[in-house]
Structure formats: C-alpha cells, structure tokens
Amino acid sequence: MWYEAHATANLYLSPLSIGEIQHGIERLRPRDPVRAAKLERLLLGIIAAYADRIAPFTAEAAREWGRMHLKQRCR
Hints:
This protein is mainly α.
C-alpha cells in the first residue's frame, strides 16, 4: 500500500481533512450517535498522532478550498 511505503514522520494532515471528517461525523450523529462517537474518538486519536504534523492553513489555501468546494457543489 502507498501508506506503508512512506515514513509516517514525513506525512502531514490537512486541517481541511479534519474539518471534512468532522462534518461527516456530525451528519451521521443524528442517525447513529454510537457510531458517530466511535468515529470522533478515532479522529481525535489521529489528530493527537499528527499534532506536530498538521499542515498550516494559509489564506491562499483557504481561497483554493473555496474554489474546490464550489466545484463540488456544482456537480
């Protein structure tokens, strides 16, 4: 697998990915609160594991996210 071929120390996590995952958890929560809680614990563990490797979210990154988000909504 791709992940196994790369050193974990060289991998970074995007704050947007964190937000997207949290969004999915919140959408799930009304239908399946137990599963949502499990996924949220998993997400918190990932955030803790990558605490020093969460990529900065710059203004330019925010602008690009806005462009990408619009393209997804228009599909």
